[in-house]
Design goal:
single chain; alpha+beta; three-stranded antiparallel β-sheet; 3 strands; globular
Length: 103
């Protein structure tokens, strides 16, 4: 059964133009969590604000001068939600701990 979540995708102005023309393109496997399209989500119960986090990503982490934040409704059977106290978050931290030990 597909879940539907609201997500925020922060990117450069140049990439935003490409996304509007071609749609989202899955990233390569050498990215943070592997191949995929990454969004920040919100969760009021644990004070997670996806739009705020996406803005942090483009301004502080990526240090972009010109940026865009897309808001998207995501309906998929293949969503990894690490922003809540979920099984996905626990699996992510297990994977992350293993990765740190190996590297």
């Amino acid at each position: 059964m597909s879940s539907c979540v609201l997500g925020y995708h922060g990117t450069s102005e140049k990439c935003a133009i490409k996304i509007e023309k071609e749609g989202y393109i899955e990233s390569s496997t050498d990215r943070w969590l592997g191949s995929g399209i990454y969004f920040f989500g919100s969760n009021d119960s644990i004070d997670v604000d996806g739009k705020r986090d996406a803005k942090w990503w483009v301004t502080k982490k990526k240090k972009l001068k010109y940026w865009v934040i897309f808001e998207a409704e995501i309906t998929s059977d293949n969503v990894l939600n690490i922003a809540s106290e979920s099984v996905d978050k626990k699996l992510y931290y297990q994977w992350y701990s293993t990765l740190l030990q190996k590297h």
